[in-house]
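Quick log. Single chain, no ligands specified.
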Amino acid sequence: MVKNSPILIKTANADKPTPAQKKFNTTMKRINKQKQALEAWKELLPRYRQDYQAMMSPLERTFTQGQEQIVLALDNAYKNEKLTNNQKEKICDLIGRICGHLIEVYQREDLKPLYNFYANTDYDRDAEEAKAEYFSNLKAAMKQDFGVEMEDAEFTPEGMAGIRERLFEKLEQEQAAEEARRAKRKKSAKQLAKEEREQKESEELGKSIQTIYRQLVTVLHPDREPDEQERVRKTGLMQQVTVAYENKDLLKLLELQLALEQIDQEHLNNLAEERLKYFNKILKDQLDELEQEIFHYEQQAAQLVNLGIPMGITPQQVPLLMKRELANFKRQVDQLQLDVQAMQELRSLKAWLDNYKIPQPVQYFTFEL
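-> predicted structure:
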């Protein structure tokens, strides 16, 4: 990956950069750093995901096979060995938990009879009841919070997409109505001045981008180029200009101007303070968008290595985190293999069961303030 130097304003040694110049350089450096990070994520994350899956899949297969062996050993002991009621209760809990996990995650439909017997319930019925309860709560929440009525037939991917559209339309209508109400209210001089200032700033931001765009179009318009090869080159550059203009990508437009020698370092060094102020605002928006996009990749990487919160994870840290997560899972697989061996002999199986503690159900506490 090639590292590009950021576009910076340079001042003479004796001159102190103005606040706007300093902010321009700082933002440009941050944008350059974030762009390099984004390129690294786009290049490396798919490779990391593929490598991780290739290394994790054999371990998962071994783990699920071990879980199945434990289930069968426990089932055999429950039916054929003399056990205490407490030991039998633990077997019921273990088989229910393990089978439930294998059915849900790995679609092991063949384990449903075992689950139903030891959990003393019906997996499919429980799933349908849980689904019905979820939809019932969702319907009530949509009606109470948003005034949107949902029908049972809409509980499909297509139906939910339609609900989202109706919800967005309703929210847009409410927002438009609120803005209309605000517009009717008499505004203070301070509010009017703020709106006028914001309107002017928005216009100037648009003009700053538009000015550069027009300068580039004047030079690059392919219809004015008689040479066929040069027309092809300009067409490609013109496409880049159009995309950058539509995305309000000031940095890309400036890079194109520099490449086409429309501006030089001296031009950058002498940008007017007012123009710099608007440039800084546009660049800050670009930086925010870049950071949001990078955060999306960080979330994907954190999910891949079971990290939870991304906490500023970088592409370079992912291999080490993958190695750590694989080592942790390998230890679980090794322990599971030892557990499988322990269950082959009745005495060690009973000792294993005596050490096992049925997990307590999760408790939720409410506090009244």
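Residues 202-270 form one domain.
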